[in-house]
Design goal:
Radius of gyration: 25 Å
Strand content: 15-25%
Largest sheet: 7 strands, antiparallel
Shape: elongated
Number of domains: 2
Distance between the termini: 90 Å
Order of helices and strands: HHHHHEEEHEEEEEHEEEEEHEEEE
Length: about 350
Amino acid sequence: MSVFRRDGKSTENKTNKRRFSKLKYSGLFLLFEVVFTAVTLTLIVFYGPFTNVKKTVVSMFINSGRHQYVAKWFLSDDEINKLTNYSNAKNGLITSNQKSDVNEIHVEHKNDSGISVETVNSSKFKAYFLVINDPTRVKVAYTKYLGKEGQITSAMAEDNGAVAAINGGDFADEATIGGEKYTGTGGKPIGILISNGKVISDNNGNPDKKIQSFGITPDGKMRVGNYSVNDLKAANVTDAISCESMLLINGVPQVIGQESGFAPRTAIGQTRDGSILFLAIDGRSISSLGASYEEVRNLMQQHGAFNAVALDGGSSTTMYYNGDVINNPSDAVGERYVPSIVYAK
């Protein structure tokens, strides 16, 4: 009987070994298939003939800030700029002769404390609108650690007694000490930043250099166009930020010079009755992929914007209202440190 049991166990062990061997080889084959497919798709995206796919993917990495290195593994800076126009946009080299006509804006709701909230769901993204009826309530604020690190949008909003806020302008993504890139400190604004009449950033030390920007005058009228610091001061602008892209000027949709892909987006606009629109679009998630600049422009136009610009997006995109962040920032740790906000008291 004992011999029979040993033979049975021996047969069972051999069967188990065969099963394990099959599972092992099946697993290795599956791993090979996954790696082969990933490598093949990557090569097709970056080196294949599908230019629009390449533009979309490269733009998503380049506009992500922290993950630009992925695109740079495969393409040179010149190749990336030819595809996306990213460097030209960052350096203010995408220009338009158009400027907003403030005489077309008639502020109708001064001393109106109303702010309305709207959520827009599309097949690709979830968007949040705040409509501030009185535009004279809208200002620009900046990090109290300027030159060292940024602050999260909600902290700056609370520091300034804001009811509503969105993140503001772009920044150099590098550490204060040593200049290490992709550290995300948010302490060094790029381009123009003016707050309460004080020039915080003068476009790299050149107050006469023009860059696509928006500004707000004391009577609540929003200027949009290519401006220098001195232009904005001469126009009596007290609060201003350089923008990522001009979307609408005098009701006319602007040509988007920069390839953007799909990403979280922040934008600001103004209707002809003076109301200010804050817009935040979630992205980089299964439930909300994100939007292109063209989609942001169209959404702003559908909501009555006469002038509108896109601000810093990606993981910076944050909307604050009544003490809470009401959108879903895409950064894994929550709100990202940024240099500036646009807010309403």
